[in-house]
UniProtKB/TrEMBL annotation:
PANTHER family: GLYCOGENIN SUBFAMILY MEMBER. It comes from Streptomyces spiramenti. GO terms for molecular function: transferase activity. This is Polysaccharide pyruvyl transferase family protein. InterPro entries: Glyco_trans_8 (IPR002495), GNT1/Glycosyltrans_8 (IPR050587), Nucleotide-diphossugar_trans (IPR029044), Polysacch_pyruvyl_Trfase (IPR007345), TPR-like_helical_dom_sf (IPR011990). The lineage of its organism: Bacteria, Bacillati, Actinomycetota, Actinomycetes, Kitasatosporales.
Length: 799
């Protein structure tokens, strides 16, 4: 991805710039919205604008603010049918009442004042205004990557010093009470070009100080006089003047008129064209139009696209319902594979197996179908069948990663033994034999495979160390949370003296979706109620990204059952505590308490731990790349460029190395080298043991990490951290230790400047910062000790 933007010339001096975001503030993606002022006269133009936006930018779906004062309910319904994220906002009709009085039918005058209400918006970081007499002809997602100033196209007929207000890209520093007051002051005073209305107000206010956007994003119709063809690179065509295409148009502009009428189609035609588009489409748009088409009786092809989008959005049950209404031909392997995945996500395992088996009959879908069948068998504790499907998948595609993981996970070990529930790292021992209530604890956790997330590998052992120095099978019965809690699993759990659940971000809906709980532990409410031993929920995190949701009713019921059954319920940060308490009745909410992630107190847990006498002169960097769209939104190119600058600046003082927690994290290093010519030494921590990871983190001087455990693990090893906040949980942890200044949002406009300043400051104060880390850790260790004092008697600890 190129980080250079073709949109703008060099901004003029004095262009407003945003200040730094508050240190450690909530790590949300940059909030972006489109906005238009719409009335009944220009409704036909706006509907065509929305259709053109969907068909030319099918991967784009942001909130659309409809500023209005007189729209009828039926008009609003027509608008909502064309966009899933319409937000209606009434304009301040009284504010400019004297100016529009006597000219109520003149849309240009009304729009001139009422579109200025966009400057009263406070809940978005970037707002892009589009006139209702525009049509979108090409991709405009580059507009969403603009980060500075107030962007606009210079007027074609009046020179570079004046903007055309038909399209504005307004950044947050202009969406303030102060700027809005200045707009109102000039507008009410009338000290501007009366024939230009809103353009006159903004030109008088900005005095030419705006960011120049390429003319193709607001290409005025008058440039096409004499029936000139529309240039191929025009992205937004603006039908300026009093004659509008839906009113009969104007002679001499035939190609321009044709461009508008291309999108003047009914809703059924829009849906047909949308679903015929090749390539990726935004899942919210697919869901929106797909539901309409499904109600109208669409065929299997649209049902498959709709179900695929629903799966991506976590609506697994609806995906099953959509596909279940169609007879899927045996040869349609893609549809069978998708239906099988959806059924599996709803814990309808036997039905899922049938459809996945049909998908294995076709070579293109066979490897992944075998991988899903292997996973299904493993979930149901059938390791032999899982190993067989994994091997079949590898025979079809030796490079299939999931088949490789499941084959290693389930293939019989040397000597003929059965595979273990838990992978290596000293935690094996999912034996079905032995243990009584005076001895072992059952431990339901996410046990990471080889080359899995480095932080998650360390978690189960860290949890166990809070209870005893013995982390092996003599003291623990391993139960992988993704495996269905069947009768045999219940029997194993009930033979132990207690059950520990955690740690890690188990409250997340999509890592291993199941219809039994709607979070990672694959357990029914009935099975939870049949657990006879005390339950301790220990250092679990509520891990949803912004905008990501659960199957709310199922998750809430499962959560409530778990809280009712648990003798102790501790979540790893106060942010998670608050989110979970909000889902519970008051009598249960008060039982949810803070239990820090045990990785944050590793120095206290590991017997014989010694802090390094000397540290390497290095800084370790980590960037989480999984779920990149949820983490970075439209800002990945910006983040990459800013981090390249920061790496160069920090590298002038100390060596920067890359700590890769997951295989996908390596993508950042590749992009950094390709786009910015920077090569970093890579430490593949996903291949390392917990001991080696802790040792590496303990002897570096600073860790800059975008993963939760790229902050918590080095912190636990006593090393200073700076968190690149791309998920709320990173901010939650910094808030818990009262060090929000140790975090910088990845969406920070001046990320390189702020990150470099803070990194070099921590390096300059290294010894004092290490002492501060140790001091902060003592607070978390005290909480852990106090909680353990409560938990041990509850679990019948013989000690």
């Amino acid at each position: 991805m190129s980080t250079a933007s073709p949109l703008t010339a060099t901004p003029r001096p004095g262009t407003a710039g945003a200040g730094h975001a508050p240190a450690g503030s909530q790590p949300l993606k940059r909030r972006i919205a489109f906005a238009s002022y719409v009335d009944e006269n220009y409704l036909p133009g706006f509907l065509t604008l929305l259709r053109s936006l969907a068909l030319t930018n099918p991967t784009l779906c942001e909130d659309f603010l409809v500023l209005h004062d007189d729209l009828r309910p039926e008009s609003i319904a027509r608008i909502r049918a064309l966009h899933p994220r319409v937000r209606l906002r009434a304009v301040r009709t009284e504010h400019y009442a004297d100016f529009v009085k006597g000219d109520q039918t003149n849309y240009l005058v009304r729009k001139a004042y009422f579109i200025l209400d966009v400057f009263t918006v406070r809940d978005y970081d970037t707002v892009i205004t589009l006139d209702t007499d525009m049509v979108v002809l090409d991709r405009i997602d580059e507009l969403l990557r603009l980060r500075d100033g107030l962007g606009a196209v210079a007027q074609f007929f009046h020179g570079e010093d004046k903007l055309n207000s038909g399209l504005l890209v307004i950044q947050k520093e202009f969406l303030t009470d102060e700027f809005c007051a200045r707009v109102d002051e000039i507008g009410l005073a009338g000290s501007y070009e009366l024939d230009k209305h809103d353009q006159g107000i903004l030109n008088a206010l900005l005095a030419g100080d705006f960011v120049r956007v390429d003319a193709r994003y607001n290409y005025v119709k008058r440039r096409l006089a004499g029936n000139k063809p529309v240039p191929e690179d025009v992205a937004v065509l603006h039908y300026t003047g009093r004659h509008k295409p839906w009113q009969g148009g104007e002679t001499g502009y035939a190609p321009a008129e044709e461009a508008w009428h291309r999108y003047d189609i009914d809703d059924a035609a829009l849906r047909a064209e949308f679903f015929a588009l090749p390539g990726r489409k935004h899942p919210e748009l697919v869901r929106h139009f797909g539901r309409q088409a499904h109600r109208a009786g669409s065929g299997l092809d649209i049902a498959v696209q709709l179900a695929d989008a629903l799966m991506e959005l976590g609506d697994y049950r609806e995906a099953v319902e959509v596909l279940g209404r169609h007879r899927i031909p045996a040869r349609d392997a893609r549809a069978h594979a998708l239906y099988g995945n959806a059924l599996m996500a709803c814990a309808r395992y036997e039905e899922a197996r049938t459809h996945l088996l049909l998908a294995t009959a076709h070579p293109p879908t066979a490897p992944r179908a075998h991988a899903r069948l292997a996973q299904l068998a493993w979930v149901l504790h059938d390791d032999a069948t899982a190993a067989s499907h994994a091997l079949s998948g590898l025979s079809a595609d030796p490079t299939d990663r999931m088949c490789g993981i499941l084959h290693r996970r389930t293939a019989p070990v040397s000597g003929g033994g059965r595979p273990s529930d838990a992978p290596p790292a000293g935690l094996n021992g999912a034996s079905d034999q032995g243990g009584d209530r005076a001895g072992r604890l059952a431990h339901a956790a996410f046990y990471m495979d080889g080359q899995g997330n480095a932080g998650d590998k360390a978690l189960p052992e860290a949890v166990r160390r809070c209870f005893s120095d013995d982390t092996g099978p003599g003291a623990w019965q391993s139960e992988h949370v993704h495996r269905f809690v069947d009768e045999a699993a219940l029997e194993r759990i009930n033979r132990q003296r207690g059950l520990v659940i955690g740690g890690g971000g188990l409250f997340i809906p999509d890592t291993s979706p199941n219809g039994n709980s709607a979070w990672q532990w694959n357990v029914t409410d009935e099975a939870m109620r049949r657990i006879e031993v005390p339950i301790a929920v220990f250092a679990v995190g509520y891990n949803t990204f912004e905008g990501q949701g659960y199957a709310r009713e199922r998750f809430t019921d499962s959560l409530r059952t778990l809280v009712e059954r648990a003798a102790f319920f501790g979540l790893r940060n106060h942010g998670s505590v608050e989110r979970v308490r909000d889902l519970l009745p008051r009598e249960l909410a008060d039982t949810v308490v803070h239990q820090p992630c045990p990785t944050t107190v590793a120095r206290q847990l590991i017997p014989g731990w010694r802090d390094p006498a000397e540290r390497d002169d290095t800084v370790l960097l980590n960037i989480a790349y999984d779920r990149a769209g949820l983490r970075f939104g439209h800002d990945y190119g910006h983040v990459l460029a800013e981090l390249a600058t920061a790496i160069r600046r920090i590298g002038e003082h100390t060596e920067v190395r890359y700590a890769s927690h997951a295989v996908t994290d390596d993508t950042f290093v590749t992009d950094l080298r390709r786009e910015h010519g920077i090569s970093l030494p890579v430490l593949p921590m996903y291949d390392w043991s917990t001991e080696r990871i802790l040792a590496e983190y303990a002897r570096t001087k600073l860790v800059i990490g975008a993963r939760g455990h790229a902050g918590m693990v080095p912190f636990g090893a006593g090393t200073p951290i700076l968190s690149l906040i791309s998920h709320p949980k990173l901010g939650y942890f910094l808030r818990d230790i009262d060090r929000p200044e140790w975090g910088v949002s990845v969406h920070e406009r001046h990320l390189a400047e702020l990150l470099t300043e803070r990194a070099l400051g921590l390096l300059d104060r290294h010894e004092a910062t290490v002492a501060d880390v140790h001091d902060r850790q003592v607070l978390l260790w005290k909480i852990t000790q106090e909680n353990m004092g409560r938990i041990r008697p509850l679990l019948g600890d013989p000690a």
